[in-house]
Amino acid sequence: MKKLSLICCAAAMLALSAEGGIIYSSTSGSIPDGNPAGWSATAAVSGFLPTISQVSVTFNVSGGYNGDLYAYLSYGGALVPLLNRVGVSSVNGFGAAGAGMNVTLSDLGLNNIHTAGDGVLGGTWRADGQTTSPTAPPGSFSAGGGSITLDGAFGNMDPNGTWTLFFADVS
User: Which pLDDT value is given to residue 159?
Assistant: First the structure.
């Protein structure tokens, strides 16, 4: 079993690592403001055996408004919403008022990132995991996040193939 980590800095540099070795890196980019078309990067991974046992995603996003962000990781027909308009709910239509984050998303996190408060976010969180459309009305979002997990979606898969990381500022 392999431990697989994804690292993304400023939603720009993409790197996948397994057991501490970086296996892919990409150049920087930016998340267009108010554009659901967003930004994405792909990583073609090869040479790792046998299967994935744990997935984590680390990224550093600066600026913007956290409650506007939507991000996902997809691979092998599975898609995990990493961020889905953090904090948006029927009680808070605008979501978390922070301007950036330097976080790790892992099933080992104590809390779902959707429950994060205002300010620049840091630390380890569970992925948002809810499939609500990021353009849905605020009342459509679960205040506690969703149930899709990184290890549940990607665990026991062959890590070799094309991974996609997507970020958008949807509002």
Answer: 83
